[in-house]
Amino acid sequence: MVQRSVMVHIRPDEVVADALRDSDAGMRDADNALKHGVAVKTIRRWRRLYQRRGVPRGQSHLSAPCPRCDQAAMDQPAYAELFGWYLGDGHITLQPRGVYGLHIFNDAKYVGLNEHVMELMRRVKPGGRPHTRQKPGCVVITTSWKHWPCLFPQLGPGRKDLRVLGMETWQWNVVEAYPADFLRGLFHSDGCRANNWTQKTIGGRLKRYDYPRWQFTNNSVEIRAWCCEALDLIDALAAVELEDHLGLHAGRGGPARRADRAQVLRRQGVQRDQRSRITREVKEGVSPPSRYVAPPAVTAGASATG
């Protein structure tokens, strides 16, 4: 019987580094392969991936320490913004071997924003390797990690607006410290910016006033409440109007509203007490950190849009 040698497929970092140094020094691929006991095509693959493309070697992107389990340092501004993206257009799925995938959906035409989301994922999960896939009209940005449920305990089966969401105290502390980053993620995912204008006759002359209006639309009462709380934190002079996604419903003698939308009208003349009154209505008497409910266990192969 002819005995065949068994080639080790995972080489130590020292072997790869030494082979790349020899390649840089001008050693032929055949001689380099003979010296290190690998195939010629392996040397060529190492040069292609690690020298020309700059791909990081190894599986360090899968073993990043968790800020919750391992008390690792966390990039809090990046987390606050990624948290907003996740609440708006994100969901988490359970993949093989207990690894979770964080998926953010965004319009494919916003190339800069999509690259920014990938950078946020790299900052929250050091060494992470976000990748994208195209879907009709959008791009899906995904990063895999076993610890996404630790950072986003809102994970659960079904849509977010059909479940009671809660925010843990440590999450709210991050939002309090970086409300603008949190709002940036929310408004980029489920918001839009429009230009409001009005006309008024002053001194016999018709004058036009223009001012920006930001709209945030989400069916979850908790997510809208957190949005309004963050607006209060940055002390934006804003009026928050609520409208119902089922259609306009005029109250008794009151204005028509929609319950799924928060509108921010940035004018100096908007009264703070009006904003606070409507913010309390959005919150429905619930403070952000107090509604945390432990998410149910997710079985292998199941997905969650929490």
Structural class: alpha+beta
Quick one: how many beta strands? Answer: 10
What is the mean predicted local confidence, pLDDT? 77
**Main beta sheet, described?**
5 strands, antiparallel
Q: What is the H/E string?
A: HHHHEEHEEHHHEEHEEEHE
- How many individual helices? 10
Backbone CA Rg = 26 Å
Enumerate the spans where pLDDT stays under 50 for 5 or more consecutive residues. Answer: 1-8, 236-258, 267-304
Strand order of the largest sheet: 3-4-2-1-10
| Proportion of residues in extended strands | 15-25%
Helix proportion of residues, in percent?
A: 25-40%
Morphology:
elongated
Termini Cα gap: 58 Å
Write down the oligomeric state: single chain
Quick structural summary:
The protein is built from ten helices and ten strands.
